[in-house]
């Protein structure tokens, strides 16, 4: 098994078991290969804690994944046509031995342009802040000293 795939499975299983970090399927995780040619990412509909060597992930060629973002014709599509187009392109970027038809995360192109390892979770605490009346102000206080994007 490739090290990046082993890392993805280990990370996904670890965070996926923590119910404070994950609700339901709980988000996405991805790991890129050291040469930058491939990205392993959680398959859509997979519960993080259930990923293993046989299921729950896809390996994508990174170049066609990033091409989705660069292709302005995709952005111009009506939303009802855009998602099927993106999903089709993600399937075409898959290069693995997965035969289940598992769909790569629809967020694969976002993960593709981020860091080598991305862990995106739906934690209960963040969900509570996001839905609270003064949640944004409270989060800004909590993270006032952190470096954040503008």
From TrEMBL:
Gene3D superfamilies (UniProt xref): Class II aldolase/adducin N-terminal domain (3.40.225.10)
Sequence ranges assigned to domain Class II aldolase/adducin N-terminal in this UniProt record: 8-132
InterPro entries assigned: Aldolase_II/adducin_N, Aldolase_II/adducin_N_sf
Alphabetized Pfam families for the sequence: Aldolase_II (PF00596)
Protein name, UniProt field: Class II aldolase/adducin N-terminal domain-containing protein
């Amino acid at each position: 098994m490739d090290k990046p795939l082993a890392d993805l499975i280990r990370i996904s299983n670890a965070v996926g078991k923590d119910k404070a970090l994950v609700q339901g399927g709980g988000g996405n995780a991805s790991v890129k290969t050291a040469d930058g040619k491939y990205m392993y990412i959680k398959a859509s509909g997979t519960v993080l804690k259930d990923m293993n060597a046989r299921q729950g992930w896809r390996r994508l060629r990174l170049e066609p994944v990033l091409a989705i973002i660069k292709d302005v014709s995709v952005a111009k599509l009506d939303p009802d046509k855009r998602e099927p187009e993106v999903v089709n392109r993600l399937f075409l970027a898959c290069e693995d031995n997965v035969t289940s038809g598992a769909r790569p995360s629809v967020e694969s192109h976002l993960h593709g342009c981020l860091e080598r390892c991305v862990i995106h979770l739906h934690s209960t605490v963040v969900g509570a802040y996001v839905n609270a009346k003064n949640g944004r102000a409270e989060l800004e206080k909590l993270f006032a000293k952190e470096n954040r994007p503008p």
